[in-house]
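Record type: monomer structure entry
Structure origin: computed from sequence
Chain ID: A
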Amino acid sequence: MSLRPVLETRNAVPTLEGAGVKLHRAFGFQDPSELDPFLLFDDFRNERPEDFQKGFPWHPHRGIETITYVLSGSVEHKDSLGNTGTLAAGDVQWMTAGSGIMHQEMPHGSASGQMHGFQLWGNLPSAQKMTAPRYQDVGSQDIPEIIDDDGTRVRVIVGDFWGKRGPVDGIAADPQYLDIFVPAGVKKTFKIDTYRRAFAYVFEGQGAFCDASAPQGVLLEKEVGGEELHIRDMSGDRTLVRFGSGDEITVMAGPDGLRFLLISGAPIDEPVAWHGPIVMNTQAELQQAFAELRNGRFIRPAH
């Protein structure tokens, strides 16, 4: 087994999206090869309705998948194909935009006015860029949760983990998407297939991701067999942790425990031509998409 090194930690950056929704962006609109097959990750968390209630009005997508995970409040959605629905707390929506879709997402706060959720963009390989759009809406009750003997809890949204399989399937990048809580003071190791690119996003508590290859770090402990594990960084709320190659990560939770998303996927390794909500492989394909958007031919008829 080999511990994945921590390549970097960075804080999510405040930004505005949609009609003025305040959110924090962990990555996006930068080097798309960095976390291939993932393109963008946003944390939308607010306690004031005026910071989120204008939402994300009608906008297009093509060539990607959007993954929305709601923790508090709800998100009402509708699209140009006539689909409508509402994501409640704990629900997930995996939308394959494929050849093109127009949709809107309107967040609503909980009874106490809070709204919290995440959106991840996953790229599609060239062979699936123009596939028919589809949704996978998954209710919270259908997402398996595992509780280990030490109190560690894992919700398996996508992929196989600890003998459970997440309900979302048929995704090109073969992703794994886990919502993990590690209790205070517990050190825990999680395995990740070596072929995947991986990152963690911390959103509650504090903890340390261990890095055997970081001699500048603080010594955490000496493992049986002599390997020294080091704390690369103490990661707290709204922190992105990007990992290098290997097949496991180890984390030590702080005094209040640690909750984070652990997300990984198989790199697509294809050229990316990207502007706003449309991601293709070439500039010509990108220009064609925007031309079709202007002339009303963006949405392909269902076959």
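Annotation 1: The chain has one helix and 25 strands.
Annotation 2: The CA atoms of residues 91 and 140 lie 5 Å apart.
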